[in-house]
């Protein structure tokens, strides 16, 4: 491989990596900023809504407290029935979306994208070691990003199985290089474990676990029209994973830690 083509691939790998980090930060801003700039009046309205009794039991407790405070506990009349407070749109969505759609599917997408970011970041370093290693990292990053793109379009059992095979294969290969090295003189001695490869392995195992759980949870005939839900409809565990993943990629990128 010529020096020019190697430099081009290195630049491409860095571009992919930092684009993923930047996109993740933009997504975090889109998710978090509206929560921080909510007008005071809206917060007060939410406080009043939260304080309102949601069922007859809460209404009775509130009435008892008020009567006790004013010395009218003995003459308290039964309160009028109170209609339950309407559920918010987010709460309704959380109840109506199946767990596998709101949690497992976003986990698989986030983990695959984050693992691709690691492979893109480490690609240039491995290109300098050996062209074959660099090509593997570039191919792994593209495969994981391509898998994510396909999942965003539609979800099928075959695609989930491919996600398991791709990421489990990466984890097995990584474990072999850390335990024994590679045959045929490619890597005579094991490589040390570093923060980048630990993060990649964790995310790849996340893809494997999420896809396997999805395959167990859904019969083959239930995938028609199945798509990734909007970010605001994700399970809190999936949202937390996305936030942690973006911050982890950012910290690793800024720390200069080796692979």
Account of the 3D structure:
With 259 residues, the protein is mostly helical. It has 2 domains: 3-37 and 98-255, no CATH class; 40-86, no CATH class. The chain is 73% helix and 0% strand. The protein contains 9 helices and no strands. Helix 5 runs antiparallel to helix 6 (131-153) and helix 6 runs antiparallel to helix 7. The longest helix has 34 residues, at 3-36. The protein is elongated, with a radius of gyration of 25 Å.
Topology:
Elements: H1 3-36, H2 40-51, H3 56-69, H4 89-96, H5 99-129, H6 131-153, H7 157-179, H8 195-217, H9 236-255
Strand fraction: under 5%
Please report the number of helical segments: 9
Number of domains: 2
N- and C-termini, Cα separation: 23 Å
Structural class: mainly alpha
Shape: elongated
SS elements, strand count: 0
Summarize this structure briefly.
This protein is mainly alpha-helical and 259 residues long.
Keywords:
9 helices, 259 residues, 2 domains, mainly alpha
């Amino acid at each position: 491989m010529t020096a020019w083509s190697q430099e081009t691939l290195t630049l491409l790998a860095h571009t992919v990596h930092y684009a993923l980090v930047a996109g993740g930060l933009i997504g975090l801003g889109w998710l978090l900023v509206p929560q921080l700039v909510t007008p005071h009046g809206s917060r007060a309205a939410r406080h009043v809504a939260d304080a309102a009794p949601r069922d007859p039991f809460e209404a009775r407790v509130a009435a008892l407290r008020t009567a006790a405070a004013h010395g009218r506990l003995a003459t308290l009349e039964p309160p009028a029935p109170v209609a339950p407070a309407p559920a918010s749109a987010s709460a309704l969505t959380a109840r109506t979306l199946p767990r596998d759609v709101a949690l497992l599917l976003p986990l698989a997408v986030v983990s695959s994208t984050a693992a691709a970011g690691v492979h893109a970041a480490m690609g240039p370093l491995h290109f300098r070691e050996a062209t074959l290693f660099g090509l593997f990292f570039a191919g792994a990053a593209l495969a994981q990003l391509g898998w994510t793109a396909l999942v965003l379009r539609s979800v099928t059992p075959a695609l989930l199985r491919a996600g398991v095979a791709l990421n489990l294969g990466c984890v097995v290969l990584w474990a072999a290089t850390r335990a024994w090295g590679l045959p045929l003189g490619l890597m005579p001695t094991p490589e040390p474990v570093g923060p980048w490869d630990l993060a990649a392995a964790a995310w790849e195992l996340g893809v494997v676990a999420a896809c396997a759980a999805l395959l167990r949870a859904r019969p083959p005939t239930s995938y028609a029209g199945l798509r990734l839900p909007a970010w605001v409809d994700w399970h809190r565990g999936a949202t937390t994973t996305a936030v942690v993943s973006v911050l982890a990629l950012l910290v690793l990128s800024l720390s200069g830690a080796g692979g």
